[in-house]
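Incident log, structure service

09:12 report received: a user says their structure output differs between two submissions of the same chain.
09:20 pulled the input from the user's history:
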Amino acid sequence: MKLILLGPPGSGKGTQAKRIEQTYGIPQLATGDMLRAETTSGSALGRRVKSIMDSGELVSDEILVAMIRDRIAQRDCRDGFVLDGFPRTVPQAEALDRMLAENNSRLDAVLEFVVDEPDLIGRLSGRFTCRNCGASYHELYNRPKVDGVCDMCGSREFDRRPDDQPDAIRTRFAAYRRQTEPLLNYYKKRGILQKINGMADIDNVTREIEAVIAGI
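09:34 re-ran on a clean worker, output below:
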């Protein structure tokens, strides 16, 4: 089973991709995680990627396509995968189709997370993570049980991603509308686009996704 999750930043794609991974045994391929790992590698590419991500802009097709090609060729993707954050443009989608066709394969479904943009700005700008263990929190929706202390490891040091600042978020939304929304027509014409209510609570979103998967 090969799935794509589409939606603007903060729409819940990552959370649901993890649930799909756990329920169906196919890996989540999160380009954001791959890119962040690259930024910590100390390489020239990592420094380049960090500069792009900190500004809220999108990483080039050249970098992303090469990363995805290598990843889907790995053994754990043999029975499928769920892509989170790729493709973001029609050329990337066409490149992915070519990759899959080389192995006589194709996508099964593309899930569009339909959301309200102003609410998403609140979701993203309130996020912070534990510097020690990476546990995720939110100023309004998911604060640590003890203020200023990580629930998981007890650390008192937290970080906010530079691209979660309001101005960077608006830049990311503008980039999404400009580059990613054309994908909706691309996949709609192929008959594999399914809409998901991304503003529903997490469990309801999961149930919607499971209903779509059951129909594949």
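09:41 both user submissions now match this output. Likely a transient worker issue. Closing.
09:42 reviewer note: The mean pLDDT is 89. Residues 74 and 199 are 34 Å apart (CA to CA).
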